[in-house]
From TrEMBL:
<dbReference type="InterPro" id="IPR029058">
    <property type="entry name" value="AB_hydrolase_fold"/>
</dbReference>
<dbReference type="InterPro" id="IPR003140">
    <property type="entry name" value="PLipase/COase/thioEstase"/>
</dbReference>
<protein>
    <submittedName>
        <fullName>Carboxylesterase</fullName>
    </submittedName>
</protein>
<comment type="similarity">
    <text>Belongs to the AB hydrolase superfamily. AB hydrolase 2 family.</text>
</comment>
<dbReference type="Pfam" id="PF02230">
    <property type="entry name" value="Abhydrolase_2"/>
</dbReference>
<dbReference type="InterPro" id="IPR050565">
    <property type="entry name" value="LYPA1-2/EST-like"/>
</dbReference>
<dbReference type="GO" id="GO:0005737">
    <property type="term" value="C:cytoplasm"/>
</dbReference>
<keyword id="KW-0378">Hydrolase</keyword>
<dbReference type="GO" id="GO:0052689">
    <property type="term" value="F:carboxylic ester hydrolase activity"/>
</dbReference>
<feature type="domain" description="Phospholipase/carboxylesterase/thioesterase">
    <location>
        <begin position="20"/>
        <end position="209"/>
    </location>
</feature>
<dbReference type="GO" id="GO:0008474">
    <property type="term" value="F:palmitoyl-(protein) hydrolase activity"/>
</dbReference>
Length: 212
C-alpha cells in the first residue's frame, strides 16, 4: 500500500497483476475544482494489467474541490511552481518506496495535465511516460528549455476540438513547439469539449499498454 506525506492521496492497486506483481505506477491529477475521488472511475476504465494508480488532491482548496494554481488573469506561475515542487517531492517518495523513474507515469487532466507536463519539463529524468489530457501549456511563461533527456520519455497529449475552457488551437501550437525539439509526443484530437471521452481512454490504454 502506497501513501504520501506530501499530498492527500488514494492508492489503487492494479486490478489484475498477471504472472507477476505490478512494477509501474501512474500518478493521477484532477482538474480545477475537482478532487481525487472523481478519478477512481477513470482508473477503472483504463484498467491495465500490472499498473497501480496514485490519485492525489491539489494543494489549494477551491470551492468544493482543489486547485493546482490560480487562473488568469491572476498570475498562475507561482502556483505552478509550488505544485511542481510538491510533485517532485512525491516522485522522490515513490523512489524511496522502490519505484524507479522509468516505472512512473505522470498523468493529469486540465490543470493537472499542466502540472504533469511542466513537472516533467522541469526535471532532467526519464519517466515511463507523461500524459496531458486537455492541458493548458505555458512554455513561455514557465521559461521551458527542453533538454536532450526529455526526448527519451514518451508523451501522450489529448485535446477536444470544441474545448470551451482551453482553446484547442493554442494547445496544438504549444505541442508543435515541443515536437520541433524532437520530443516524443503522440497528439490526439477528439470531437469533444473540456472532458474525458471514452474513445480517448481507449487510445490512452493502448498507448500505456505498449509501455508496460
Amino acid at each position: 500500500m502506497i501513501s504520501s506525506k506530501i499530498f492527500e492521496s488514494t492508492f489503487l492497486p492494479a486490478k489484475f497483476n498477471g504472472p507477476k506483481s505490478s512494477s509501474k505506477i501512474m500518478i493521477v491529477m484532477h482538474g480545477l475544482g475537482d478532487h481525487k475521488a472523481s478519478y477512481k472511475d477513470f482508473a477503472l476504465e483504463v484498467n491495465l494489467t500490472g499498473l497501480d494508480y496514485l490519485l492525489i488532491n491539489a494543494p489549494t482548496p477551491y470551492y468544493f474541490g482543489f486547485s493546482w494554481y490560480d487562473l488568469p488573469p491572476a498570475e498562475p506561475r507561482d502556483g505552478i511552481l509550488n505544485s511542481i515542487e510538491m510533485l517532485e517531492r512525491l516522485i522522490d517518495e515513490l523512489q524511496a518506496k522502490g519505484y524507479q523513474d522509468e516505472d512512473i507515469f505522470i498523468c493529469g487532466f486540465s490543470q493537472g495535465g499542466c502540472i504533469a507536463l511542466h513537472t516533467f519539463l522541469s526535471m532532467e529524468r526519464k519517466f515511463a511516460g507523461v500524459i496531458g489530457l486537455s492541458p493548458r501549456i505555458y512554455l513561455d511563461k514557465m521559461g521551458v528549455q527542453e533538454k536532450e533527456i526529455h526526448r527519451e520519455t514518451p508523451i501522450f497529449i489529448a485535446h477536444g476540438i470544441h474545448d470551451q475552457a482551453i482553446d484547442f488551437n493554442e494547445v496544438q501550437d504549444q505541442v508543435t513547439r515541443l515536437k520541433s525539439h524532437s520530443l516524443n509526443i503522440e497528439f490526439n484530437e477528439y470531437d469533444m469539449g473540456h472532458e474525458i471521452d471514452i474513445s480517448e481512454i481507449r487510445d490512452l490504454a493502448k498507448w500505456l499498454n505498449e509501455r508496460l
